């Protein structure tokens, strides 16, 4: 181990290891590119699904329309959203899994057992976790439907806030469920603001 590596923080060493991971490269037709964001001081954890094709190209989490919607839902500016000192973005699968039968394929199943627990235990400052989409919700809340969990979001506070995946499909769902915009989003913004440090902190 070189001296620079020896003096790195545990979470930085872990992120280095993840950056070099090729555990399921044979199944990744678009190649290996883990895309995530984390630091030991992050207060908000966005537990998401897997990068899409645009994110795979950019290497920046949620640099797509889904990310625009998620920033709008949470009320987070791009500056705050992309500040790893404040916000960690940890999908269930770190690399783009390619296309499936209907939309993107599920996150690679090898990824979470290899990395997730180690990474989450290094995120000890997290106050609120947004569970974005079914895969992240299943991992924490057990089996159920996204619609039911989102409707019962209060049951999971103050630690977890379940959300639908902010893909284009969520726009249709939102039109059918106006309470999401009227009631849930203001509460989500309040919880996100409360989780983050105040200016004087
Ligand atoms: S998806 Fe996860 S396990 Fe597979 S190569 Fe990428 S980082 Fe490694």
Structure write-up:
The chain has 201 residues and is of the alpha/beta class. The protein has helices at residues 3-6, 10-19, 53-58, 65-74, 78-81, 111-121, 134-141, 146-151, 169-176, 179-195, and strands spanning 44-48, 87-91, 128-132, 160-163. It has one domain (3-195): Uracil-DNA Glycosylase, subunit E, CATH 3.40.470. Strands 2-1-3-4 form a four-stranded parallel sheet. The structure holds iron/sulfur cluster. Residues 18, 21-25, 32, 34, 93-95, 108, 110-111, 114 line the site of iron/sulfur cluster.
Total strand segments: 4
Distance between the termini: 36 Å
CATH architecture: 3-Layer(aba) Sandwich
CATH superfamily caption: Uracil-DNA glycosylase-like domain
How many domains make up the coordinates? Answer: 1
Short description:
It is built from 10 helices and 4 strands, in the order H-H-E-H-H-H-E-H-E-H-H-E-H-H. It has 201 residues and is α/β, with parallel strands linked by helices. The protein has a single domain, classed as 3-Layer(aba) Sandwich (Uracil-DNA Glycosylase, subunit E).
Write the layout of secondary structure elements.
Elements (H helix, E strand, L loop, with lengths): L2 H4 L3 H10 L24 E5 L4 H6 L6 H10 L3 H4 L5 E5 L19 H11 L6 E5 L1 H8 L4 H6 L8 E4 L5 H8 L2 H17 L6
Parallel strand pairs: 1-2, 1-3, 3-4
Features:
201 residues, alpha/beta, Uracil-DNA Glycosylase, subunit E, four-stranded parallel β-sheet, binds iron/sulfur cluster
């Amino acid at each position: 181990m070189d001296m620079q590596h020896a003096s790195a923080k545990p979470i930085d060493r872990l992120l280095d290891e993840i950056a070099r991971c090729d555990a399921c490269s044979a199944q990744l037709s678009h190649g290996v590119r883990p895309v995530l964001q984390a630091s030991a001081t992050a207060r908000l954890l966005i537990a998401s699904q897997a990068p899409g094709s645009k994110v795979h190209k950019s290497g920046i989490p949620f640099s797509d329309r889904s990310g625009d919607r998620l920033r709008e839902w949470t009320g987070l500016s791009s500056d705050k959203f992309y500040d790893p000192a404040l916000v960690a973005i940890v999908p269930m699968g770190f690399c783009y899994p390619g296309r499936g039968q209907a939309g993107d394929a599920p996150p690679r199943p090898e990824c979470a057992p290899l990395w997730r627990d180690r990474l989450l235990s290094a995120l000890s400052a997290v106050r609120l976790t947004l569970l974005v989409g079914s895969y992240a919700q299943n991992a924490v809340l057990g089996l159920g439907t996204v619609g039911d969990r989102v409707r019962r979001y209060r049951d999971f506070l103050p630690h977890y806030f379940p959300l639908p995946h902010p893909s284009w499909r969520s726009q249709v769902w939102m039109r059918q469920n106006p309470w999401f915009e009227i009631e849930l989003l203001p509460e989500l913004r309040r919880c996100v603001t409360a989780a983050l440090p105040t200016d004087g902190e």
